[in-house]
Amino acid sequence: MTTSSTLRPGVVDPGPPAPRPPRRRGDGAAALAFLTPSIITFLVFVLAPTVGVLVLSFYNWNLLSDGTFVGLDNFDRLFHDGRLLGVYGSTTYMALAILAVNVVAGLLLAVLLETRMPRWLRGFFRLSFLFPFVVSASAVALIWRFLLNKDLGLVNYLLGLIGIDRIDWLGSSAFAPVSVIIVNSWKTIGFSILVYIAGLQSIPNELREASIVDGANAWTRFWRITFPLLSPTIFFLVVINTINSFQIFAEPRVLTQGGPGDSSRTIVEYLYDRAFGDFDLGYASAIGITFALVLIVLTAIQFWFSRRWTFYS
Predict the structure, then answer these.
(1) Long-range contacts for 83-90 (Cβ within 8 Å, ≥24 apart)?
(2) CB burial readout 199-218, b (16+ within 10 A) else e
(3) Portion of the chain with pLDDT greater than 70, in percent
(4) b or e along 29-55 (b: 16 or more beta carbons within 10 Å of the residue's beta carbon)?
């Protein structure tokens, strides 16, 4: 036992450690009761469907007859499907564009909204950007389908006022994916702005004030202070928007039905067509599994690269 004589001068003996409070008999049951709804939800809506899709990918099943075990034939078909590579290409093009708009334009708009302006005006802009995010994707797509109509749409009418010919936004292979990008970005950018604003408000004002005293201009303050401290927020939005943008379905489905051709078709839409259009659920399951693996690999790559530029204070 340590005595006060063995301690350094001025150091008070803390005494023996306080005993741990006894665990009550009902603590484990209470914890299990609180966790049960989450466990049941995970088992029913996540684990069971995942296992079901994995098993189904080894079968040939059309919903009407008994499934036939085909082994890896469905995965072999992936390498001989001429449309699949094109659909992956169109999905990647639209997803990267949507990602860039949400991450880059969202940051610029968030910084502008945090500048000095009347509080009521700032609240108005925040609500304006966030409102489309809470509206269903199908409703947003239906509204924009009317706005982008070649003959009666408001967008072409406004372009005509400045001398630009009508654009076939929904019927052209060049502009159909652009339409999907515009609509999805308009709907989802509000979430990115909201997260950015939360990140900006968490940066201590003392750092900005000290940099102003040191003579740093606005760009230097952003690049040396705001961006490093905001990098975890940027990384979070990059990961979330990558996953979400690769999984878009409602916008291309309602706006263009994936056409013309496969120019605006996404992997999720192609999977849906194979499953419920051709009733080829085994092959659709194989597409879904490989697509999930692609997203996992992309997320892992982003986490690996984040070590080089993400700063955690």
Answers:
(1) 83/262, 83/270, 84/270, 84/287, 86/262, 87/262, 87/265, 87/266, 87/267, 87/270, 88/267, 90/177, 90/262, 90/263, 90/264, 90/265, 90/266
(2) bbeebeeeeeeebeeeebee
(3) 91
(4) eeeeeeeeeeeeeeeeeeeeeeeebee
Taking CA atoms, 112 is separated from 26, 192, 236, in Å, by 53, 14, 21
Please state the domain extents for the chain: 73-309
User: What length does the chain have?
Assistant: 313
Q: How many CB atoms lie within 10 A of CB 291?
A: 18
Write down the residue that tokens 């009733």 correspond to: 279
Please, what is the Cα angle at 104 between 263 and 186, to 5 degrees?
55
**The token pair that represents 285 in the structure block:** 């399951």
Question: What fold, for 73-309?
Answer: MetI-like fold (1.10.3720)
Q: Residue 293 pLDDT > 80, yes or no?
A: yes
Residue 67, token pair as written in the block: 């499934």
Residue 65, C-beta contacts closer than 8 angstroms, at least 6 positions apart: none
pLDDT over 50 at 1, yes or no = no
